[in-house]
Design a protein that fits this description.
Chain A contains nine helices and twelve strands. Chain A is an alpha/beta fold. Chain B folds into three domains: 9-235, 3-Layer(aba) Sandwich (Rossmann fold); 248-337, Beta Barrel (Elongation Factor Tu (Ef-tu), domain 3); 341-443, Translation factors (Elongation Factor Tu (Ef-tu), domain 3, Beta Barrel), CATH 2.40.30. The chains are: A alpha/beta, B alpha+beta. The interface between A and B is large, with 66 and 76 residues.
Chain lengths: 311, 445
C-alpha cells in the first residue's frame, strides 16, 4: 500500500521561509526597526534572508553595527563591503564613543568590551528612536536562550525579564511596544550552528576570511587557544602575550567572530565551506564552549548579561 | 459499558516497522507532555545524547553538576533545565525549545511543564507542534494529568499522539502492565473522541533512564515488536495537515519599489506573505478579501527568483495581472474556495494572563496579519481540563482557564474553523494597555 505523503519543505527551506516571515512581520508591525549587522556569519545569513524577503524593494530598515573597537579588521572591512554591495544604509556606533562620553567605564584597559556593547546599543536605540532590533541570536547557542522568544520584549532600560515575556503561539507574533520600549526580533532562533553553515554553503554566501583556516599567532591560555598580537585598523596591536607564554603560529579558524579579547579560534584545516560543514558535523565541543571566553565564568552568566540588556 | 478497546487502524499501520515511510531532509516539530516525575527531561536528554547532539563540554559541565548534587551517573535531565531562576526553584516554568537532527530529519522540541497551573504553557507549546509525546509512568498508569495533556493536544489540534509508557524498568518490563495501561488509555481516548477528531495514537513502552526503545531497542522488551520512539519520530508526517486544505495567503507586506532608479520596477507591486495552507500556481484565479476583487496570478517569486508553483509554509511574493489595491491584513485566496468575512466569532479561548479577562473591556484580536478591536459577547461555558466537563461560566476568565467565548469584531476577519485549518482558525488576544498577549483563541465551526 502506498500512502500519499504531502509534499513538504526541506529543513533549510522551512527555516528560510520561517525567517522571511518573521522579517516581514517586523516590517509590517514596527514603525522604525533596525537590523544589527556585525559582518559575522549569522548576520550574513540574515542579510540573505532579507534579500529574499524584500527584493526587488529596498530593505525597510537600515543596518547597524555596534563596534567595540576591538573587532578583526577583516570582519570590519567585510561589513562595509557587504553593506555597499547591497546598497543599504549602514550605521556604526562605537563603544569607544560611549567611553569618551563617560557612559562606559572600563575596569582596565584590556577588559573585554563585549558586555559594554549593551550601553552603546541602548544609546543608539534612543538616538534613532528604534522600536525593534533584528538580531542573529539562536536558541541553540546557550541554555539561557532556549526559552527566548522570537519577538523578545525589553523594557525602557533595555532589560530582559524572563518572567515577563509574551507567550508566543502559532506564527502570530506580537511586536507591539510603547514608546521607549523595544522589541528584539530573532529570525533565526530555530537554527543551529549546523543549519547556519549548511545555509551558507547552499547559498554560497561570502564570509570574512578568518572563518576559514589560516595561520595565526596564538598562545595557550586557560585551557584554550588565545589569539595574540592582533593588529587593529588603527594600527594598534592588542592581545599581547603575557610573560612566559609561548607564541605559536598554527592553522586555525574562527567558529564565531566577536570582540578580539574574548573570541578564540579553533585548530582547523577547513579552508572551504564544505570542509567546515563536515567539521561542524563531527565536532565535540559546542560553539560557545570552544570560542567564547566570556560565557564560561558561570553557568548562568549569559542569563545575567541578558537581564542587563545584552543582546 | 464500553466495548473492549479497538485497535485504531492508523495505529496498526504506524506500528509495522517495514511500513514506516522515510522522509528525506524534512523538519518535524513536536512537544513533550509530562511532569518532571515522568522522566520527561530524561527522555529529551536521552534523545539529544543518543543522537550525539550533546557535545563533550556540555557533558563535562553536566557531570560536574551531577557530582555536586551527589549523583553517581550523569543526570540527563540537567540538560533541559534552563534559567537560574528556575534552577533555584527546581522546576521549569516556561516553554523551552531544543534541537536535534538525525541526518534525515531536523527536530524542534517544545518542552513545556506539565502541571495544571501551566496549562497556558502547554497550549503555547502545542500550537506549533505536529506530534505530542504523552508520558505515562508505568507504575502509575493513566492519571488526571494524562487526561489533561491529551485533552489539550486534542484542543490545539496536534494530529499525531505518541503515548510513551515510561519507567518500564520499574515494572520488570512487564508486557501485561504495558497492555493494561494501553487499554485504559484507549478507553479514555474513546471517551473524549480523540480518534474521531482525526488524531492518530501510537504506543511505545520505554525506559528513558536506561535508553530502552528510545533510540536503541535494548534487550529488555523482546515482546515489543513495534517501532522505537525515534523510529516513530522519523516516520511521522511532517506536513501540518494531511488534508487537502484551501489556499490561504495573508498579505504581510506590499512591495512597491516605485522610487527605485530602475524604471522597470516602477509598476512592480508584489504581495508578500507566507502560504498558510494549500498551494498556488501561476495562472490561478484568485480573490482578494475583504474587497472581493478578483484577478490572476501573474508571477510567484522568492526574492527575485521566479517559481511556477508554491506550497504550504513557503514565504513568497505574488504578483497579480490586475492593478488591485491590496494592503497588509488582506488575504489572497482561490476564487472557488473563498471564506466569508465575519464580524462575530465563537472560539475556545485559553486565557494566558495573570490579569483576568474583563468582559467590559475592548481587546485587540490578531488573526493572521490582520487586527481588529473586539468586545467579549458571551462566555458560554468553561472546560475543566482534568475531566473535560463543561462548567457553567461565571463572568470572567483567569489564567489557565479554557472557555468558549463569542467576540464582536470592529473589522471583518477571514476565518476558517480551527478544526479545518490551524492557521486561519487561530488568533491571539492582545491587551491594548500593556500590549501583552493575554489569550489564545481557536475558532469553532
Amino acid at each position: 500500500m502506498t500512502t500519499l505523503i504531502k509534499q513538504t519543505l526541506s529543513h533549510l527551506d522551512w527555516l528560510e521561509a520561517e525567517a522571511i516571515h518573521i522579517l516581514r512581520e517586523v516590517a509590517g508591525q514596527c514603525s522604525n526597526p533596525v537590523l544589527l549587522f556585525s559582518g559575522g556569519k549569522d548576520s550574513l545569513c540574515i542579510l540573505r534572508l532579507a534579500e529574499k524577503a524584500f527584493r526587488p524593494g529596498r530593505f525597510p530598515f537600515p543596518l547597524m553595527h555596534i563596534d567595540t573597537g576591538h573587532n578583526y579588521q577583516e570582519v570590519v572591512n567585510f561589513r562595509d563591503q557587504r553593506a555597499a554591495e547591497l546598497g543599504e544604509r549602514l550605521i556604526v556606533r562605537s563603544v569607544e564613543d560611549s567611553i569618551k562620553r563617560g557612559s562606559v567605564v572600563l575596569k582596565s584597559a584590556d577588559e573585554s568590551r563585549n558586555k559594554h556593547q549593551s550601553v552603546t546599543l541602548l544609546e543608539a536605540i534612543e538616538e534613532f528612536g528604534f522600536d525593534c532590533c533584528i538580531g542573529g541570536a539562536r536558541r541553540d547557542e546557550e541554555k539561557a536562550r532556549a526559552k527566548e522568544r522570537i519577538m523578545s520584549f525589553r523594557d525602557e532600560f533595555g532589560q530582559w525579564d524572563p518572567k515577563n515575556q509574551r507567550p508566543e503561539l502559532w506564527n502570530l507574533y506580537n511586536a507591539r511596544s510603547h514608546k521607549g520600549e523595544n522589541i528584539r526580533a530573532f529570525p533565526i532562533s530555530n537554527w543551529t550552528e549546523m543549519d547556519v553553515w549548511q545555509y551558507i554553503e547552499r547559498e554560497q554566501l561570502e564570509l570574512p576570511s578568518i572563518y576559514f583556516a589560516h595561520n595565526r599567532d596564538v598562545v595557550m591560555r586557560n585551557n584554550g587557544i588565545f589569539p595574540v598580537n592582533v593588529r587593529l585598523a588603527s594600527g594598534e596591536i592588542i592581545n599581547e602575550p603575557k610573560p612566559g607564554e609561548e607564541v605559536q603560529n598554527i592553522q586555525v579558524r574562527f567558529r564565531t567572530v566577536g570582540d578580539i579579547t574574548c573570541t578564540a579560534p579553533v585548530i582547523s584545516d577547513a579552508d572551504t565551506l564544505s570542509k567546515i560543514v563536515l567539521e561542524t558535523a563531527t565536532t565535540t565541543i559546542t560553539e560557545r564552549g570552544a570560542t567564547r571566553l566570556d560565557d564560561q565564568t558561570s553557568d548562568a552568566s549569559m542569563e545575567q548579561r541578558k537581564k542587563e540588556g545584552y543582546f | 459499558m464500553l466495548d473492549p478497546p479497538r485497535e485504531s487502524l492508523k495505529s496498526i499501520e504506524m506500528s509495522k516497522i517495514e511500513n514506516l515511510p522515510v522522509h528525506n531532509d524534512s523538519l518535524l516539530r513536536f512537544m513533550t507532555c509530562g511532569s518532571v516525575d515522568d522522566g520527561k527531561s530524561t527522555l529529551i536528554g536521552r534523545l539529544l545524547f543518543d543522537t550525539k547532539t550533546i557535545l563533550a563540554d556540555t557533558l563535562t559541565q553536566m557531570e560536574r553538576t551531577s557530582h555536586k548534587r551527589g549523583l553517581e551517573a550523569v543526570d540527563l535531565s540537567l540538560l533541559t533545565d534552563g534559567l537560574q531562576a528556575e534552577r533555584e526553584q527546581g522546576i521549569t516554568i516556561d516553554v523551552a525549545y531544543r534541537y536535534f537532527s538525525t541526518g534525515t530529519r531536523k527536530y524542534i522540541i517544545a518542552d513545556a511543564p506539565g502541571h495544571e497551573q501551566y496549562t497556558r504553557n502547554m497550549v503555547t507549546a502545542a500550537s506549533t507542534a505536529n506530534l505530542a509525546i504523552i508520558l505515562i509512568d508505568a507504575r502509575k498508569g493513566v492519571l488526571t494529568q494524562t487526561r489533561r495533556h491529551s485533552y489539550l493536544a486534542q484542543l490545539v489540534g496536534i494530529p499525531h499522539i505518541v503515548v510513551a509508557i515510561n519507567k518500564m524498568d520499574l515494572v520488570d518490563y512487564s508486557q501485561a502492565e504495558y497492555e493494561r495501561i494501553r487499554a485504559s488509555y484507549l478507553e479514555f481516548a474513546e471517551q473524549i473522541g480523540l480518534q474521531r477528531t482525526g488524531h492518530d495514537i501510537t504506543f511505545v513502552p520505554m525506559s528513558a533512564l536506561n535508553g530502552d526503545m528510545l533510540v536503541d531497542r535494548g534487550a529488555a522488551m523482546p515482546w515489543y515488536k513495534g517501532p522505537t520512539m525515534l523510529e516513530l519520530l522519523e516516520s511521522a508526517p511532517a506536513a501540518h495537515s494531511e488534508r487537502n486544505e484551501s489556499f490561504r495567503f495573508p498579505v504581510q507586506f506590499v512591495c512597491r519599489p516605485h522610487a527605485s532608479d530602475d524604471h522597470k520596477l516602477h509598476d512592480f507591486r508584489g504581495f508578500m506573505g507566507r502560504i498558510e495552507s494549500g498551494e498556488i500556481a501561476v495562472g490561478d484565479e484568485v480573490t482578494v478579501l475583504p474587497s472581493g476583487l478578483s484577478s490572476r496570478v501573474k508571477a510567484i517569486q522568492i526574492g527575485e527568483e521566479k517559481i511556477e508553483r508554491a506550497i504550504t509554509e513557503q514565504s513568497v511574493t505574488i504578483l497579480l495581472t490586475d492593478e488591485i489595491d491590496i494592503s497588509r491584513g488582506d488575504m489572497i485566496v482561490k476564487k472557488s474556495e473563498a471564506p466569508e468575512p465575519v464580524k462575530q466569532i465563537n472560539a475556545m479561548v485559553c486565557w494566558l494572563s495573570e490579569t483576568a479577562l474583563s468582559p467590559a473591556r475592548t481587546y485587540i484580536i490578531r488573526h493572521t496579519t490582520r487586527e481588529s478591536k473586539a468586545k467579549v459577547g458571551e462566555i458560554a461555558y468553561k472546560i475543566d481540563v482534568n475531566t473535560t466537563e463543561k462548567l457553567s461560566a461565571e463572568g470572567s476568565l483567569s489564567m489557565n482557564d479554557i472557555a468558549s467565548i463569542s467576540f464582536k469584531l470592529a473589522q471583518p476577519l477571514m476565518v476558517d474553523a480551527y478544526s479545518t485549518n490551524r492557521a486561519t482558525g487561530a488568533f491571539i488576544v492582545i491587551d491594548e494597555s500593556t500590549n501583552n498577549t493575554v489569550g489564545a483563541g481557536m475558532i469553532q465551526a
